[in-house]
Write a structure and sequence with these properties.
Strand order of the largest sheet: 3-2-1-4-5-6
Largest sheet: 6 strands, parallel
Number of helices: 9
Distance between the termini: 34 Å
Radius of gyration: 18 Å
CATH superfamily: Isochorismatase-like
Order of helices and strands: HEHHHEHEHEHEHEH
Number of strands: 6
Length: 256
């Protein structure tokens, strides 16, 4: 039996309820998947692996050293997707320099406006970390809210590719990853979450969010199993962009 990161959080009652209610059934992952890489930027990873409370001193939204473990797994999935010719779509945030359009984000974190006055760095917070930087055939979707679908062209890109499913990795598991997964499910895409490719600043939120999504909205799969799944997809069936058309990201802030 597969062991999941949330197993230690579930009571025997929870396990019995899920079993009795039929939750967590395994779905067909789909025949035309896209890989969605959610918000894996300097703002969420920091500029190096270090304990989260140290990283937060310079990168308020950082998820600490765990993010860099996930980046290695994400890179393996991106590399495999490129080899198989699968669409890879990244998301990251984009806001005005004065942070006005952050809108409701500012209601739940009183420290957000401090980012405007943080010490300057050559790294832009919303830039995808260099280890998995988008390639010329990849797409970058800019967003202002948690879901990669809300107010963006994500769904239209998936339609253009003819996708029937998405594999989601990135951060935060309880925030933008979850919002994107629920919206994909709501749009009737088959949804897979690569467990080790998702990360969060809260260990409990990460585990329980994966549990909840696996129960209702998605299949949580180990990265090794997703890599094997990608190998079953016929290579070269997607018409990918022929060159880089990604937008420039202007300021060092990201969605939560």
């Amino acid at each position: 039996m597969t062991e999941y990161v949330w197993d230690k959080f579930l009571t025997e009652r929870d396990k019995a309820v899920f079993a009795a209610g039929g939750f967590g059934a395994t779905a067909d992952p789909g025949k035309r998947p896209a890989l969605l890489v959610i918000d894996v930027s300097w703002a969420f990873c920091g500029d190096k692996p270090e304990p989260i409370l140290d990283s937060i001193k310079r990168w308020r939204s950082s998820c600490g050293a765990e993010s860099w473990v996930a980046v290695d797994h994400i890179k393996s999935l991106i590399d495999k997707a490129h080899v198989r010719g699968l669409p890879v779509i990244y998301t990251t945030g984009e806001y005005r320099d004065d942070n006005w359009d952050a809108g409701s984000w500012r209601w739940k974190n009183r420290r957000r406006d401090e980012d405007v006055d943080r010490p300057k760095t050559e790294l832009k917070g919303n830039e995808i970390v260099a280890a998995i930087a988008p390639g010329p055939h990849d797409i970058v979707v800019l967003k202002k809210k948690p879901s990669g679908f809300f107010g963006t062209d994500m769904a239209s890109y998936l339609t253009l590719f003819g996708c029937d499913s998405v594999v989601i990795v990135g951060t935060t598991t309880s925030g933008c990853v979850r919002a994107t997964a629920v919206d994909a499910f709501s749009l009737n895409y088959r949804v897979v979450l690569a467990e080790e490719g998702c990360f969060d600043r809260s260990e409990a939120s990460h585990a329980v969010s994966l549990c909840d999504m696996h129960a209702k909205y998605a299949d949580v799969m180990k990265v090794a199993d997703v890599l094997s799944y990608f190998d079953t997809i016929p290579a070269g069936q997607f018409e990918l962009p022929k060159g880089s058309g990604q937008s420039k990201v202007a300021r060092p802030l990201a969605a939560e």
